[in-house]
Amino acid sequence: MLNKKDLENIRADIESLEKEKDSIIQLSREIIKLSKKVIYALHRNDIKGAGDAVKDMDKKVKDLESAAKTAKSHTSGSYKVAIQEYVEALCFYELMKNEKIPKNSDLKLDPEYYLMGLIDLTGELVRKAINSAIKGDYKTSIKLKDLVSELYDELMLFDFAGGELRKKFDSIKYDLKKLDDLALNLKLSNKI
Q1: How far apart are CA 184 and CA 178, in angstroms?
Q2: Which is nearest to 166 in space by CA: 177, 175, 174, 156?
Q3: Contacts of 50 (CB under 8 A, 6+ apart)
Q4: How confident is the model over 5-51, as pLDDT tens digits?
Q5: Is the pLDDT score of 73 beyond 60?
Q6: Domain that includes residue 74, residue range
Q7: Rounded to the nearest 5 degrees, what angle is found at the Cα of 39, between the Cα atoms of 38 and 44?
Q8: What does the alpha-carbon distance between residue 175 and residue 125 come to, in Å, rounded to a whole number?
Q9: Does the pTM of the predicted model rise above 0.85?
Q10: Are residues 141 and 115 located together in one domain of the fold?
Q11: Is the distance from CB of 152 to CB of 118 less than 8 angstroms?
Q12: Are 10 and 81 in a shared domain?
């Protein structure tokens, strides 16, 4: 009556899926932790420490990409967040070290996840601009304001319907307003 072998096969499949899912979640957590380490180091002008963390993060992302390709289970949740955090940290690192933002055509990531990470970058740029102004480095503050403005202008050309990407994009307006206010205050106080 009851086919126990069939149920054993189903149980084995479910256990395999759970292991794949657990592996993806663990790698995602490690990437998120490393991305925070990169950003923390950059805000303290520790380029070497950030670079070491980026190397570790790059390896973990390759592992995650490999695991996600072979996984049968759905990976959107933690995988998606990890890739966004990776993009944000990597872009911040490259910007602070080499004054450039990596292209997605080089990174070969899901375009939506790349854009989400790029949009999240603006929050770190606001923080860096404010800290730079506090330290008297007004040139960096204005340069970062101009970059956020340029990014906003470019992303305005997209037709973001609804959803998470649209909400993230809308947050750039608030980041840009903070930077515009900072620039105005610097101008009114004759700092620039």
Answers
A1: 10
A2: 156
A3: 37, 38, 41, 42, 93, 96, 97
A4: 888 888 888 888 888 888 899 999 999 999 999 999 999 999 999 99
A5: no
A6: 1-102
A7: 100
A8: 9
A9: yes
A10: yes
A11: no
A12: yes
92, with CB counted inside 10 A (0-12, 13-18, 19+), is: buried
User: Helices in the chain by DSSP H: which ranges?
Assistant: 4-43, 47-70, 76-98, 104-107, 111-134, 138-155, 163-188
Take residue 60 and report the two structure tokens written for it: 């973990």
Per-residue pLDDT tens digits for 138-156? 999 999 999 999 999 999 9
Which CATH number does the domain housing residue 32 bear?
1.20.58.2140
Please indicate, yes or no, whether residues 12 and 83 belong to a single structural domain of this protein.
yes
- For residue 136, the domain's CATH number is 1.20.58.200
Q: 129 and 169: one domain?
A: yes
- 87 CB burial (10 A radius; 0-12, 13-18, 19+): buried
Kindly tell me if the per-residue pLDDT of 170 is higher than 60.
yes
Contact 91, 143 (CB under 8 A): no
Looking at residue 60, its pLDDT comes to 97
Instruction: Say yes or no: 75 and 144 in one domain.
Output: no
Straight-line distance from the first to the last Cα atom of the chain, in angstroms, rounded to the nearest whole number: 84
Crossing angle, helix 76-98 and helix 47-70, to 10 degrees?
Answer: 150
Same domain for 4 and 98, yes or no, is yes
